[in-house]
Amino acid sequence: MTTTDPTLAETDPSGDDPDVRRGTGTRGTRIVGIATIVAMGWLVAFGLGFSPEDRDQRESVRLLYVHVPTIWIAYLAFAVTAVASAMYFFGKKKSLGWDRLAGASAEIGTAFVAVTLVIGAMWGRLTWGVFWQWDARLTTTALLFVTYIGYLAVRRLGGTHEQRARRSAVIGMLAVLEIPLVHWSVRLWRSLHQEATVLGTDGDVSIRGLMLFSLFVGVIAFSLLYVWLVMHRTRVMAMEDLLDERGLDDALAARRSEAAENQAANNEKGTR
Amino acid sequence: MEDAGFIIGGYVLTFVTVTFMAWRVLRAGKRLGKQVPDADKYWV
């Protein structure tokens, strides 16, 4: 028998094995995954090909089609972390699903900030002549990165899943407050970094035509990638938590059985 | 293209990073998926 369900096709081509154990892929993740690949292809085509060079920045503007979307999606990822943390912390059900969503989103956001910093350094080398300056925007972005590395480290401390969820929820809700500081740093302090091109306070978008479209393609591509990664990562985390619990249950059962055997042996000695 | 090394290098670095992340999460899903019965997977 052959199946038409692609979710079964990955691990069980026949589709009739009741013991088949599937990974994290589903029809939904495959659709998002394919859309991500297509959008990334468009990003390369428009970012490196169709988009014209900028009057001032010349060819280096092409790096901004990666640099800007990755930091915007990182902001979004950290906002999702904060909301999911609040849902866990203040929610009545205390569902660990919120905690896993918060953790997965923070991991992906942190990776996106790392990409932003590296691509930004390359752009800085071409535009300013240096890879790094202790400028307000660069420094606050680096601080944001370090904060979320700390958040991820706290998630890996010992304790129960509930303890992990509680303490990381507090950090997740506080760390997000850094985002306005990063975004407005170019206005709050004298900065080498340019002001917002799209998300400015005056609402004016100072980028047009194919350049704006290329930036839009970048935002779509990295948004899809974020959704795809979050879907898979939360499922991986759910399985990790389940196996952790089973491991603990097995260890407790073994310990109890060992204690019962010792007790029986002691009783036997006592009766002799 | 001026500064092609930096620009293409930046794109390559980005795609290598995201491909590595994707590969890592898929591999973990596949490995753990073998240890957990489908009945315990809310997405199945």
Uncertain runs of chain A are: 1-16
> What string gives the helices and strands of chain A in order?
HHHHHHHH
Question: Strand count, sense and closure of the main sheet of chain B?
Answer: none
Number of helices of chain B: 1
Q: Any low-confidence stretches of chain B, pLDDT <50, length ≥5?
A: none
What portion of residues of chain A belong to β-strands?
Answer: under 5%
- Largest interface, counted by CB within 8 Å of the partner chain's CB: A-B, 42 and 34 residues
The H-and-E topology of chain B, N to C, reads as H
| C-alpha end-to-end distance of chain A | 66 Å
| Form type of chain B | rod-shaped
Q: How many angstroms separate the termini of chain B? A: 48 Å
**Rg of chain A, please?**
25 Å
Quaternary state, please?
heterodimer
**Structural shape of chain A:** elongated
Mean pLDDT of chain B: 91
Please report the total strand number of chain B as a whole number. Answer: 0
Structural class category of chain B:
mainly alpha
Portion of residues within helices of chain B: 55-70%
- Specify the number of helices of chain A: 8
Model description:
Chain A is mainly alpha-helical. Chain A has eight helices and no strands. In chain A, helix 5 runs antiparallel to helix 7 (178-188). The radius of gyration of chain A is 25 Å and the shape is elongated. Chain B is built from one helix and no strands. The model of chain B has no long low-confidence stretch (mean pLDDT 91). Chain B is mainly α and 44 residues long. The radius of gyration of chain B is 18 Å and the shape is rod-shaped. The longest helix of chain B has 30 residues, at 4-33. In chain B, 68% of the residues lie in helices and 0% in strands.
